[in-house]
From TrEMBL:
Residues in MaoC-like domain copies: 11-116
Protein name: MaoC family dehydratase
Domain of life where this protein originates: Bacteria
Species, as recorded: Novosphingobium clariflavum
Amino acid sequence: MPGKFFDEWTLGERITHQPSRTVTETDNLLFSAMTHNMQPLHLDAEFAKQSEFGQILVNSTFTFSLAVGLSIADTTVGTLVANLGFDKVVTPKPTFIGDTLTCHSEVVEMRESKSRPTQGIVVFKHELTNQRGETALSMLRTVLLKKRDA
């Protein structure tokens, strides 16, 4: 499914993206290793048992990347010129191995590009919720999109 062009979005539009994704131990291990994040809370079960969480925490940069990945099919595939920025990234609840995450997106800002008349800027609020209905991650993603009628 292709993403939408700038002129196809409306302010306040909301999407719940499918599929959702269950996070595995392998996801967390490989992502942490690939990014050289050797935090023992992500990798060492015995260390993590001694933490206030009592178990391994999934690397939060994995959840950040997953939010982007889960959202793009409905938002920006084929219409993106560039990601302009990521802001207000918060992780109010931890993600654990076995959690199933669902991404929701809302258009919170739109404006014409002043320097590129064939493009426009959209700000999405992406939110990941787990199977318990808790928000695991929230962020703003600002994108530069093509216009259909350009």
